[in-house]
Predict the structure.
Amino acid sequence: MNYAKLMGLLALMVAAGAFAADDVVVERVMGIEVPGEYKHPCTITQLGNGDLYIAYYGGLGEYEDDSKVWGMRKPAGSDTWSAPECIADTPFRGEGNPVVWQAPDGLVWLFYVQRYGDTWSDSRVKGKISKDGANTWSDSFMLTFQQGTMVQGLPIVLNNGDYLLPAYHETGHDQEKTNPDTESLFFRINPRTNTWAETGKIVSDNGNLQPHAVQLSDSRLIAYCRRGGTFDPLPDGRIIRAESHDGGNTWTRGAPSQFKNPNAAIAFIKLANGHLLLVYNDSISARMPLTASVSTDDATWPYKRNLSESSGYRDFAYPVAIQTRDGKIHLVCTTDERKTILHFTFDEQAILLHPAESNAQ
């Protein structure tokens, strides 16, 4: 390594504080020692005071009516997560996928799924808000009554100030597959008027769900989505990609991307420097490994790293990523057959130091 490159690497390490540039720190947040064996999926946000806040739904199992949405926090400067507290529960109905997110005006939004039948195709989306940093929550409200509508990805703030909440419409009453007309969509929220509007949908040949979007310009957005269908390995199983050219109101038809997908959720965010981060299972058949790729333009993805190789776990599901105000990337996911929540922390440099061509699989 030449002197200039060495000095640059040392500077990155100093700026990262306790982290070396190549470090990926993996923290086990909780597991079976916390009551309610099922904990899946989880989501994360940074609150205005610097706290990290995780929400997840849990209970006896995925389709059990005892499932509730739980919240827990790691106060800024602390190494300890609080005990989970129930933040959403409806008698005789099971709750599902939560999304927790603090908006620029300080409101903390909680969106979550409520199941009205035996499968997620019977679900609706509800919401709550907190005005005191996720310490207390409002009564719930119904975001949509449309049967089969669900959420999973974090909202983004558009250049015009609107919020775009990822959602999807799941069809088919089979717990092991979705129908080809399963489609991704978004809810556009105008925070000045508190009005909601549903965007156009992303359709694709075999269906798609759980979209994540980034905005590249006032008019152009990109979305990556989980593929639909069965959980059987598909040789051509890929993450579905679509674009919007009118600010997120309508979307192109979804098409397979270059990235493998075993019918599993992904994470996709734009970093503060404009770079794009995609986290996914680099496999057509299993929710492993957990891989991160970085691009500057979505045309090429020259950096790629297996985040999970030294974690000690073998399945990684429903990743959700954020970049906190100090520039660090925080990623949560579930593992251990949906019984354990993991928290990854790293700098972008931890990915940039791994050229994709050097670890091609």
User: Anything to note?
Assistant: The mean pLDDT is 92. Residues 25-358 form a domain with the Neuraminidase fold (CATH 2.120.10.10). The first strand starts at residue 24 and ends at 30. The first helix runs from residue 3 to 15.
